[in-house]
Design brief:
Number of helices: 13
Helix content: 25-40%
CATH topology of the largest domain: Rossmann fold
Largest sheet: 9 strands, mixed
Distance between the termini: 27 Å
CATH superfamily of the largest domain: Response regulator
Order of helices and strands: EHEHEEHEHEHEHEHEHEHEHEHHHEEEE
CATH class of the largest domain: Alpha Beta
Strand content: 15-25%
Number of domains: 2
Number of strands: 16
């Protein structure tokens, strides 16, 4: 913690009631906020800011100075900016990142600085298993989890032949492993694309030639927008299953092309709990757009940190990590707690893209896993 500085970001975003007092908790937040996947980071940031405003600009009773930086989806740049957050800005806690390749780059510099690192999104398999650390927490999911939902769904639907499509990086590989863990049919092809690719004509021609019973895709942000549009334009009619591809960050662009498509998620706007019932309308009133699972993750991250800091009374790593480890609470997604590897134990849902009151959103249609952990926790030794 350091002497108060002006909360420039909060003021720029139009937040009030967040004036700093004598001491502040400096929170560094690193997200992808530019390029085709910028919406993911925007949703996380805005969800966090909403919760922070509702808490009067404080977490655990300590005023917060929030410093947000854009990693530009460049791992080398992310390392430089992470070090600046720690060494120049004196960050007491670091929140980030969106993409797993960026997380794998910044993980060691942040952990070696002796501060707690909280991921509101990226949950790479290596950090859930043997690479786990007492000061690293994920408040969203382990990368495989939401994909596992669709592997189970494809099995339940009796799809015998499945094609998988994902970018060739850590989260893409985790996605395919997640689907295959619960799918009992034949995976006829695993198609890896470049991260950031926007033209999928060759991949979709391959899908058409294979004639699978269904397609599974992981293409976040602008990649997902283009894939869904091109899938429709190609006249493909087999079921399109996905995670982080058809959601409220892409639906404003894909609209009717995505209606009816299924996805896996740990959150949906129609989940029946008091926290979520308050979050959705408050977010829409503040920002003027429909929240996604990313926005819920940003919001929940603030709630979880608030609860832990209230117990720890400090951002010192050992005390805060112990308090985070003990968190059990209701979030926008329902009941939440951390497993032995500091990754969530929570429910997962099959969601579907729908149009409601002129907005394209996702809604939960079935609970697929209850109190679900991840496949790597047993390999974590702390």
């Amino acid at each position: 913690m350091k002497h108060a500085k002006a909360l420039a970001l909060a003021a720029a975003m139009g937040f009030t009631g967040m004036a700093a007092q004598a001491e502040t908790l400096t929170v560094g937040m690193m997200l992808t906020l530019s390029g085709p996947p910028a919406a993911l980071g925007q949703h996380i940031r805005d969800g966090f800011l909403l919760a922070l405003e509702e808490k009067g600009g404080a977490l655990g009773g300590m005023d917060v100075e929030l410093i947000v930086v854009d990693d530009e989806l460049q791992p080398d740049l992310a390392v430089t900016r992470a070090r600046a957050l720690l060494e120049r800005d004196g960050a007491d806690i670091v929140i980030g990142t969106v993409f797993s390749n960026v997380m794998m780059a910044v993980f060691r510099p942040v952990i070696e600085a002796g501060v707690v690192l909280v991921s509101p999104n990226a949950g790479p398999a290596p950090l859930a298993g043997r690479g786990c650390h007492a000061n690293y927490f994920n408040t969203a999911w382990q990368n495989d989890n939401n994909h596992e939902v669709l592997g189970q769904h494809a099995t339940d639907e009796g799809y015998e032949r499945l094609v998988l499509i994902a970018p060739n990086y850590q989260a893409g590989r985790d996605a395919m492993e997640g689907v295959k863990r619960f799918y009992r049919g034949e995976v006829v092809d695993e198609i890896f694309t470049q991260l950031g690719q926007l033209d999928f004509s060759a991949e979709l021609a391959r899908v058409a030639s294979l004639r699978p019973d269904a397609v599974y895709a992981f293409m976040p942000g602008g990649m997902g927008v283009n894939l869904v549009r091109q899938f429709a334009q190609a006249g493909l009619t087999m079921p399109f299953l996905s995670a982080f591809t058809v959601d409220e960050t892409t639906l404003p662009a894909t609209q009717a092309d995505a209606v009816g498509m299924f996805a896996g998620a740990q959150w949906a706007r129609n989940l029946d709990n008091e926290t979520n019932a308050a979050f959705v309308p408050a977010f829409e009133a503040k920002f003027g757009y429909a929240p996604s699972l990313y926005a819920s993750q940003g919001y929940d991250t603030a709630l979880i940190l608030d609860a832990a800091l209230a117990v720890a009374g400090t951002a010192e790593a050992e005390a805060l990590s112990a308090a985070l480890k003990a968190v059990e609470m209701e979030t926008t997604r329902g009941a939440f707690r951390f497993g032995p590897n500091n990754f969530p134990v929570q429910d997962y849902f099959l969601v579907q893209a729908v149009e409601r009151d002129g907005r394209f959103v996702t809604e939960a249609v079935a609970t697929v896993f209850e109190n679900h952990s991840d496949a790597y926790a047993a390999d974590c030794r702390m």
